[in-house]
Amino acid sequence: MRRTLANLLVLLGLMLAGCAGAYHGRTITRGELSLVYDPGVRVYVVESRPDVYYSSGFYFTFTSGTWMRSRAVRGPWEPCSEGHIPPGLRKHRGHDRGRHRGHD
């Protein structure tokens, strides 16, 4: 019984580890938008707008030295406090756009 339980836990752990990386480098669709997961910043990038990111129900963009967020890709946009910016995205600013996605 213990061996079966141990094997089940190992199998469950392997399955969960596979799910955690399921979208790395993959494209998903949200409405009419294609979003590409960027493991470098741990958020999705809107394929048609590389300066717009998506995470946890919000779109983010860096404009005029300020991070902005919105529930819709077309706005309305509002300033976003540092605490609401996804951790992987905080270190990136406007001059970094595209560079972390494999572009120079």
Give your account of this protein's structure.
With 104 residues, this protein is of the alpha+beta class. It has one domain. Helices cover 22% and strands 33% of the residues. It is built from two helices and seven strands, in the order αβββββββα. The longest helix is centred in the N-terminal third of the chain and has 19 residues. The protein starts with a helix and ends in a 14-residue tail after the last helix.
N→C terminal distance: 56 Å
> Low-confidence parts lasting 5 or more residues at pLDDT below 50?
5-24, 97-104
* Overall pLDDT confidence: 74
Order of helices and strands: HEEEEEEEH
Tell me what portion of residues adopts beta-strand conformation: 25-35%
Largest sheet, described in full?
Answer: 7 strands, antiparallel
Helix run count: 2
Shape: globular
**How many structural domains can be distinguished in the coordinates?**
1
Instruction: Give the class from helix and strand content and strand pairing.
Output: alpha+beta
Radius of gyration: 17 Å
Q: Could you give the topology of this structure?
A:
Blueprint: H1 2-20, E1 27-30, E2 33-38, E3 43-46, E4 49-55, E5 58-63, E6 66-70, E7 78-79, H2 87-90
Antiparallel strand pairs: 1-2, 2-3, 3-4, 4-5, 5-6, 6-7
Please summarize what this structure is.
With 104 residues, the chain is α+β, with helices and mostly antiparallel strands.
